[in-house]
Amino acid sequence: MTWKSTQSWESAQLKAKLLFKIRSFFANRNIVEVETPTLSQGTVTDVYLDGFTSKYNFLADTPADVECDLYLQTSPEFAMKRLLSSGYGSIYQICKAFRHEATGRYHNPEFTILEWYRVGYDHFQLMNEVEALLVSVLACGSAERISYQSLFIKILGIDPLDCNTADLISILTSRNILSDWLLVEPSIDILLQFVFSEIVEPLIGKSAPCFVYDFPSNQASLARISNKDCRVAERFECYFKGIELANGFNELTDAEQQYQRFDEDNKIRKMQGKAPRIIDHRFIDALNNGLPECAGVALGIDRLMMIALDEESIDKVISFPISHA
Questions:
Q1: What distance in Å separates the CA atoms of residue 61 and residue 147, rounded to the nearest whole number?
Q2: Cα–Cα dist 175/183, whole Å
Q3: What pLDDT does 245 receive?
Q4: DSSP state for residue 198 in the 8-state scheme
Q5: Contact, 295 vs 117, CB < 8 A?
Q6: Cα separation of 108 and 51, whole Å?
Q7: How far apart, in Å, are the Cα atoms of 303 and each of 6, 47, 114?
Q8: For residue 133, with 0-12 CB atoms within 10 Å meaning exposed, 13-18 middle and 19 or more buried, which class applies?
Q9: DSSP 217
Q10: Burial 285-309 (b: 16+ CB within 10 A, else e)
Q11: Backbone phi, then psi, for 114, in 5-degree steps?
Q12: Which of 25, 54, 215, 258 has an alpha carbon 20 to 30 Å from 136's alpha carbon atom?
């Protein structure tokens, strides 16, 4: 009976209590809740992320018979940074986000995201705050922290910042997870991401949250490059109980660098036969005006609820997944 909710009434009540606890967490820290548009005239250029496109006929200074593209936002990031550039202090938002990707145990194309920005923080300070939120909501133990480089060396015995395609193919071969497409994949970053997701991720964050930080610079288009090692960006991810929960940055504030990264994304999209995306010039203008030094993080609320309510599927913590929508 696809008209029925996949989430139980008991689960809905518990979820409401947890959302109240999350909002109380931010209120106690004087972090202000904000709202930004779900529909926007700009979207991400990310090579491996696609949003949904809609049409609109009534933009100002546009003839009514001319359709303009609007995009459902993959996250509220650009709009929230525009608020920061407008003079806002530390802010958070709980909202819907949309990504054109396959459904699965942890995926629904429409999902709930928690995103927050801390003015004056770096990514290490923000990791501490994410940990405090998880301890508050999940009553879990203290988090582990390890760099991306150290994690690869510890688990696989190779340095991901100084390895080649042959090294990664050898690892995949030894574990019988080598597919034909990997043999012809030209990007070492794609191979690294595949090795990380298939081999490394299942081994971390089992009993306590695990923060992995300082990802390769090519895997963090919105983060600062480390001034200690230009091969890495000041990005972190948090994993717990087999789930990728959060993705955070020490935010890039340089408008010229950000534009160049977006332009490079579009070049790669063209090479892969994908349509380039119009760069969000309002976001670039905001950076030109001045984004304050800050760190930001996006956390999947539905995934957090899966852990908190001990559910095996995202369908159990949302009222109507796309199959029932």
A1: 50
A2: 15
A3: 97
A4: I
A5: yes
A6: 13
A7: 15, 24, 11
A8: buried
A9: G
A10: ebbeeebbebbbbbbbbbbbbbbbb
A11: -110, 120
A12: 215
Q: Indicate the domain borders of the chain.
A: 9-143+208-317
The residue ranges of DSSP E strands in the chain, in sequence order, are: 32-33, 39-40, 52-56, 68-72, 91-98, 110-119, 144-147, 210-216, 232-240, 243-250, 294-300
Torsion of CA 269, 271, 275, 280, to 10 degrees: 40
Global pTM reads 0.95
> What residues contact residue 137 under an 8 Å CB cut-off, 6+ apart?
18, 21, 22, 25, 304, 308
- Give me the residue label for tokens 């042959």: 166
> Is the separation of the CB atoms in 94 and 113 below 8 Å?
yes
Burial (Cβ within 10 Å: 0-12, 13-18, ≥19) of residue 224: buried
Beta carbons within 8 Å of 236's beta carbon, 6+ residues apart: 123, 126, 127, 211, 212, 213, 214, 215, 246, 247, 248, 249, 297
Reported residue count of the chain is 325
Taking a C-beta distance cutoff of 8 angstroms, is the pair 259, 279 a contact? yes
**For 177-181, 203-207, 310-314, which range has the lowest pLDDT when averaged over its residues?**
177-181
Region for residue 70 given its phi and psi (left: phi exceeds 0; alpha: psi -120 to 50; beta: otherwise): beta
Domain 9-143+208-317 belongs in CATH node 3.30.930.10: yes
Dig out the tokens for 138 from the structure.
């999940």
Residue written as tokens 């696809």? 2
In this prediction, residue 178 carries a pLDDT of: 87
For 259-300, how does the pLDDT look when each residue is reduced to its tens digit (9 = 90+)?
999 999 999 999 989 999 999 999 999 999 999 999 999 999
- Closest listed residue to residue 266, CA positions, set 257, 258, 275: 275
By the 8 A CB rule, do 287 and 251 touch? Answer: no
What tokens does 137 get? 């909501």
